[in-house]
Q: What sequence folds into this?
């Protein structure tokens, strides 16, 4: 599995300042639950959510880019403080070009996480491409890094930690949570 970070990949991860991720199959296990009224439900992972918050707190921006359109994604993004949500993308490669223009981003500053063949055009345009453990075979083949965890089961958290560790920022992020022995209170 591609979890070894060689010198070249390490340098590319160090240059990352934006993490863009697909939603279904990455933030979730890919299941889409629709009730009789057409209301959509997805299962998100709380630790993934916390990983995203830690990443953003360290100054790395997080965007969602998904081919589907649903209110539940807006709610989840709002809850996490993710402001840039691109839904209903018919062609993710083109959507990414628009995001690059709109935000003035260079490809080398972006990491992208995906799970399916619609994510392949994006993989070719970013500095670091990440596939979840249960991604399509073609996607895994092309990825720079393949997570140990599956989509919706901690893959996002794994990547958030990996980026922060490679960039040497993990220790300071975690230190906020260490118990202050004088006061006995956890640092919020
Ligand atoms: Mg997907």
A:
């Amino acid at each position: 599995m591609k979890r070894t970070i060689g010198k070249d990949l390490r340098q590319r991860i160090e240059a990352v300042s934006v993490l863009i991720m697909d939603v279904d199959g990455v933030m979730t296990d890919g299941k889409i639950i629709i009730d009789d009224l057409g209301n959509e439900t997805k299962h998100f992972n709380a630790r993934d959510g916390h990983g995203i918050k830690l990443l953003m707190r360290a100054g790395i921006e997080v965007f969602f880019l998904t081919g589907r359109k649903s209110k539940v994604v807006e709610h989840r993004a709002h809850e996490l403080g993710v402001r840039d949500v691109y839904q209903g993308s018919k062609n993710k490669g083109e959507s990414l070009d628009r995001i690059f223009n709109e935000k003035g981003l260079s490809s080398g500053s972006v990491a992208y996480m995906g799970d399916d063949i619609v994510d392949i055009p994006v993989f070719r345009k970013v500095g670091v491409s990440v596939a979840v453990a249960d991604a399509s075979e073609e996607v895994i083949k092309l990825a720079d890094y393949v997570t140990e965890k599956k989509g919706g089961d901690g893959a996002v958290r794994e990547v958030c930690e990996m980026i922060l560790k490679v960039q040497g920022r993990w220790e300071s992020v975690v230190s906020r949570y260490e118990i202050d022995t004088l006061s006995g209170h956890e640092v919020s």
In short: Residues 7-175 form a domain with the Rossmann fold fold (CATH 3.40.50.1000). The chain has one domain: 7-175. The helical segments are 7-14, 46-57, 71-80, 92-103, 120-123, 137-142, 155-166, 170-175.
